[in-house]
Amino acid sequence: MVLARLLADRHAMGTGYGRVMIGITLVEDIAVVFMTVIIPIFSGPGEGRFARAAWTLGKAALLLVPLVFLAMTVVPKILRAAARTKDQELFLLIAIAICLVSAGIAQALGFSVALGAFLAGLSISGAKDLHEAHTVLIPLRDAFVALFFVSLGTLVVPQVIIHHLQLLGVMLFLIVFGKFAIWTGVMRLFRYSIWTSIAVAAGLTQIGELSFILVEVARKSGLVGEEVFTATLAASLFSIFLNVFIVRGVLKWVEPKLAAEKMAAA
Description:
This protein has 266 residues and is mostly helical. Helices cover 81% and strands 0% of the residues.
C-alpha cells in the first residue's frame, strides 16, 4: 500500500515499471494469504505434512467456488440495490458487511481471516460497474492502515531489538540489498531493460504489510521465537521507511533514462 501511494504521488501507476511493481506485490500478497493457511500445519507432527497442506489448500480452493458464484450473482445485485439508494453511508455499510461476513465464514471453516478478507475483495471487484465501491472504501482503508501500523508499533519490544541488533541488521540487509539483487536479476531474465529492472527492484526493497500477519501466524504456531518475531516487525517497518527514500531517489535518477529509452524505441 505504501508503494502504491508513492507511485500515485509520482503519477507512475500507469507506467510500465509501475504496473510490474503492483502486479508483483499483488501476487506476493495472494501468496501470503495462502501461506497463512498452511503454516500452522508445519507446526504439527512431521509425518504427512505435505499431504495435509495439499488438502488444506484444496479446501481453500473449494471455498473460492461459491464465492466466485456470489461475485457473479448475489453480491453485485446487493451492491447495485444499495447504489440505487444514492446513500453513500448505506453503500459503505453493506460493503463492510460483505467483507465481515466473508471473513467470518472463512474463519468458521478453519481458514484465516486474511483469506476471507481477500475473497471479500474479490467478490466486490467482480462487478465491473461497481468500481465506486473502491472509492467509497478508500477513507476507511486509510483509517485502518493507520490503526494497523500503530498497533504494530506497540508490538515491537525495544529491549529485544537491542539484544538482537545483529539479527535485525542481517534481516535489513537481506530485505533491501538481497531483494534488489534478486528482482533485478528476475526482471532481466524476462528481458526488461536495465533501467526498468532497476526501477522495479528499487520499489520492491521492502516487506509488504501482510508479512506482519504471516510472522504472527508463524509465532503462534511455534515456528519462530519472540526475538525473531520482534526483529522481523522492526526490519519490516525500517524497510518500508527506507523504501520511501530509495524509490524517490532511484526513480528521480531512472525516469529520465526511461523517457529517453521510450523516445528511442518510438
